[in-house]
Amino acid sequence: VHAVGAAGGAPVLCAEDDSAEDYAAVCDGLILTGSFSYCPRLELKDRLERVGQPARVILDKKLFQAFKDAGKPILGICLGLQLLFEKSEESPGVAGLGLLRGEILRLPELPGLKVPHIGWNSLKYPNPGRLFRGIPEDSYVYFVHSYYLKAQDEGIVTATTEYGTLVHASV
């Protein structure tokens, strides 16, 4: 919230009772934030009959679809990005939202590379995207992660880096 405000934006926090389409109509874009691991929000998703689906997961899915339909940009950060895909090794047996095809994998344990990966890596831009417009290829960005995205369709990948494997850093 503070970063959006500092960048000149007016952050809007979404309530689960409101219409996702209304937010998409008045907001310039959507940020799906991260927190904790893949599992706390989704572990209940697969046990819907017994305990019900967390409101945040339902809201995230509705917001994603409404902003996608409206042609508005969507930024998924950490868990916000992971949720959009089909599954994660961080939470075996727990399905993601499956809005995009791909999976979240654990970084490989290789000599000389620590997991979690905490540090600076340069980005390559295999496909055009809005997020990195004006930022030169090979610029360094900071990573803190133990898992990475492997998108099924490499045509949606807008930034990559290398850390023991090819990491799809942005779609």
Please report which band the strand proportion falls in: under 5%, 5-15%, 15-25%, 25-35%, 35-45% or over 45%: 15-25%
- Which percent bin holds the helix content? 10-25%
The helix-strand sequence is: HHEHHHEHEEEEEEE
* Average pLDDT metric: 85
Number of helices: 6
Which structural class best describes the helix and strand composition?
alpha/beta
According to DSSP, the number of beta strands is 9
Shape: globular
Weakly predicted, low-confidence segments: 38-53
Largest sheet: 3 strands, mixed
Distance between the termini: 22 Å
Query: What does the radius of gyration come to?
Result: 17 Å
In which order are the strands of the major sheet placed? 3-4-7
Q: Can you walk through the features of this model?
A:
Helix 2 packs across helix 5. Strand 8 and strand 9 form a beta hairpin. The protein is globular and about 50 Å long. Mean pLDDT is 85; it is low at 38-53. It is 23% helix and 23% strand. Strands 3-4-7 form a 3-stranded mixed sheet, with no helix packed on it. The protein has 6 helices and 9 strands; from the N terminus they run ααβαααβαβββββββ. It has 171 residues and is an alpha/beta fold. It has helices at residues 2-6, 20-26, 39-42, 48-51, 55-69, 79-82; strands spanning 30-32, 74-76, 87-88, 102-106, 117-122, 140-145, 147-151, 159-162, 166-170.
